[in-house]
Specification:
This protein has one helix at about 30-40, and strands at about 1-5, 15-20, 45, 65, 70, 80-85, 90, 105-110, 115-119. It is mainly β. The protein is elongated and about 55 Å long.
Length: about 120
Amino acid sequence: MAHYAFLDENNVVTEVITGRNEDEVVDGITDWETYYGEIRGQRCVRTSYNANIRFNYAGAGYTYDEDRDAFIAPKPYDSWILNEDTCQWEAPLPLPAEAFADVGPAYIWDEDAGDWVEA
């Protein structure tokens, strides 16, 4: 089972569907991205739960970056920076070490403070 993302004219994902695997041949159809795209009248690009293609599993509102061949989530905060190796957004400061303790406090990003704060 494969998953496919439909893109609008700005390469923003409008919907993700489950479809045929790329190696399946049905009624002579072998290019499922093209097939689904033609049915919907939108560009269609395969995505993967395992992130083994295109870095991240696509979701509605994600952008498909053709240069990186990656799906990128909407930027959560203006100060966050795109990690070019993972195509994921990262805070400008690392999460406090206490957040990783078994019973440590939970933290959330405070954009106004530009730092992590205890939730």
